[in-house]
Amino acid sequence: MQQNIFAGKYEIIDSLGTSIGHVEMDGWENIKGFQDYKFYSPNTDFVVLVENNLDYIIFSRSKDDRDWKVLLYKFSDDTLHLYEPIVEGAPEMLFYGRKVYSFVKEK
């Protein structure tokens, strides 16, 4: 599933609607062109770590990196929208914060 959903080359659009570069994601875990991150790990609603199981991606610089970036995501047609997570409550619940990036798949 991951290979089919995420693999490809994308244009990166920031929260202001400005193109800031290009990113390439393979179908497994490698990413090139998104800040200094080298790996990504998507978690979907069948991997429940918090109560309301929103889909999110962990971006990391190495496989042992514990200083990762977590962003919530939604797909819309050929675009992967990335949002800051808002964590509230006990037990923790995730909510969509502001949209920070859109990855638009290149044709």
Characteristics:
single chain, 107 residues, mainly beta, eight-stranded antiparallel beta sheet, 1 helix, 5% helix, globular
List the helices and strands and how they pair.
Elements: H1 2-6, E1 8-14, E2 19-25, E3 31-32, E4 39-43, E5 56-60, E6 69-76, E7 79-88, E8 93-105
Antiparallel strand pairs: 1-2, 1-8, 2-3, 4-5, 5-6, 6-7, 7-8
Structural commentary:
The protein has one helix at 2-6; strands spanning 8-14, 19-25, 31-32, 39-43, 56-60, 69-76, 79-88, 93-105. With 107 residues, it is mostly beta strands. An 8-stranded antiparallel β-sheet has the order 3-2-1-8-7-6-5-4, with no helix packed on it. β1 and β2 form a beta hairpin. It has one domain (2-105). The mean pLDDT is 87.
The helix content is under 10%
> What is the residue-mean pLDDT, rounded to a whole number?
87
Number of helices: 1
**Oligomer classification:** single chain
Radius of gyration: 14 Å
Q: Gap between N and C termini, in Å?
A: 20 Å
Structural class: mainly beta
What is the strand tally? 8
The total domain count is: 1
Give the overall shape, derived from the CA principal axes: globular
What summary fits the major beta sheet?
8 strands, antiparallel
Low-confidence stretches at least 5 residues in length (pLDDT < 50)?
A: none
Q: Order of strands in the sheet with the most strands?
A: 3-2-1-8-7-6-5-4
DSSP strand content: over 45%
Order of helices and strands: HEEEEEEEE
